[in-house]
Specification:
By secondary structure, the chain is α/β, with parallel strands linked by helices. The chain has one domain: TIM Barrel. The chain is built from eleven helices and eight strands. An eight-stranded parallel barrel has the order 1-2-3-4-5-6-7-8, surrounded by five helices. The longest helix has 19 residues. Bound molecules: 1,3-dihydroxyacetonephosphate. 1,3-dihydroxyacetonephosphate binds next to strand 8. The site of 1,3-dihydroxyacetonephosphate has 14 residues, from strand 8. Pathway: Carbohydrate biosynthesis; gluconeogenesis; Carbohydrate degradation; glycolysis; D-glyceraldehyde 3-phosphate from glycerone phosphate: step 1/1. InterPro entries: Aldolase_TIM (IPR013785), TIM_sf (IPR035990), TrioseP_Isoase_bac/euk (IPR022896), Triosephosphate_isomerase (IPR000652), Triosephosphate_isomerase_AS (IPR020861). It is found in: Cytoplasm.
Length: about 250
Amino acid sequence: MEKRKIVIAANWKMNTNLDEAVELASEMLFELSEIDSVETILCPPFISLQKLKELFTDTRIKLGAQNVFYEEKGAFTGEISALMLHDLCQYVIIGHSERRQYFCETDEIVQKKLASAVNLGIKPIFCVGENLEQYQSEQTEEVIITQLTRGLSGLKLPDILIAYEPIWAIGTGQAASAVEANEVASLIRRTFGELFGLDAAGVLPVLYGGSVNADNIAEYVSKTDIDGALVGGASLKSSQFVSIIKRVAL
Ligand SMILES: O=C(CO)COP(=O)(O)O
């Protein structure tokens, strides 16, 4: 099968104020403006989306939000809806393990968020992944299938990316091996195929996330079922993030 376009997404998490975000994004833009073979997505904190949207007008760099609430509007103090985001960014991260852990997001909440984003034409980067205990007791497959089937339930063929992020690999420097990550990516593709058909599974972008850096990225994307990466820590330094992209650019 022909290799799909590589996607490299940056998740800045709760880092950068507005000035820092503009500075970091500007440095990246300067280095990456010539590269069109990699789909590059930056997911800054909400407060910087508008400014970065202006900065990236007429460039190939895309923007994503890190979260979204599932209702469109109303009395939900502190929340941001897909309706508010849809003219600011093209992507949104949903179901990240940090949100599942710190904000008690269940698969049911994740499903509603996915539905809301898809309805408004924002592409979700849907994160799934097992924790260390589940990994050590060989429950990875079961956890991934459950998160996928619950998260995607009730959705019509969604325009979506799925990121496999084993929790034990996030921010630890203990990246999953490319072979292991590819096995789970392949499971994700098969499960998606069972839900939405083989053709859809064939073109589904599947990313790996968890301690990705410029030294290990090439091995991940050389695997048949991995189409790119969701990068945390290494996306906060322009030089490191740019090196990751340059390693996979044609
Ligand atoms: O959580 C991640 C991206 O969403 C991965 O974070 P690190 O790249 O810092 O391990």
